[in-house]
Amino acid sequence: MNIVGGGVIKMVEKFENLLVKGNIEFQWKIKQDLEQIELTKKKIPKYPILILTCMDPRIDVHRIFQLKPSDVLILRNAGNIFTEDVLRSILISVHQYNIKLLVILGHLDCGMTKLPLNELKSKLTKPALAKILRNGTNIPIELQKYFKAFIDEIKNIKVQMEKVSKAPEIPSGLKVTGMLYDVNSGWIFEYEKFSKYTFVENFIKHYKQLIEAKKYDFIDYIESIEGDIVGKEQYQSQKNTKSQNIILGEKQITPDLNLKKSEIITISNNLVEEQNSLKNFDELVESVQKQIDSIPKIQVPKIIIPKVKVHIPKIYKVRNKE
Questions:
Q1: Any residues with CB less than 8 A from the CB of 151 and at least 6 apart, and which?
Q2: Which pTM was predicted?
Q3: Which CATH architecture has domain 41-205?
Q4: Model confidence over 215-240: pLDDT tens digits?
């Protein structure tokens, strides 16, 4: 236990109380049936998946993939790095929990790409610095080796995948893949979508095209759930009354025989009402609608949704390599 000043102790106690009060609120929500602890005798995890990701708090794995806490195993460290301790956890996961898929989940704007090693060195205690320098006298190199800082998120994912794949301790039955998370938009990019880019700078240059391609997945998803959202009766009614006028906001539209776009907008609006927690969902839907005109198989009248802003994910500036 470290000895610290009175001011620091009070600050730490404040943060501890924050956690304790949060747990009390959690218990209250359980009593009110607003939260629940899933008691199950089923195998944990539900899916044979292990995700190695960064400790960055913006990466909420369960929200990103819409999973329950017992669905997958999750490992976290600074920069989603394959280390000796990660190997220990992987071996337990494979042999005790029958894990078949390991996902190296990196993310854009990772803090490990801009870790100030010199500044960090000045803050280290003497024992910590002595441990880091025990194998050499070149301070910058030893700091780099110990903290495993990197300059490119995409290259780092590939490096960690290669390390895991080449580790002789890893069983041959474990599949290893990578994913890239955009903290500004919430999109996940599969390995096949970014593996052709050597550096993240190249990925950023093609970012708009990659997001453009995502719209087709999004439209397919909306089409797959439209019946559930509007209800069977309402869905059938829309199919049988394609010649009727549809009121959307302040505009009255008389669609032709193909109401595909108006159906998607109606569905999207209903989905926004039922999922208020997704703050940017309406902007994303409207952005998708504006791009639907470019799809040849869909011919619909132009629809304008008033008073809706288009959400454009922020793209951070390319860093200069030192």
A1: 113, 319, 321
A2: 0.70
A3: 3-Layer(aba) Sandwich (3.40)
A4: 888 888 888 887 676 665 565 565 55
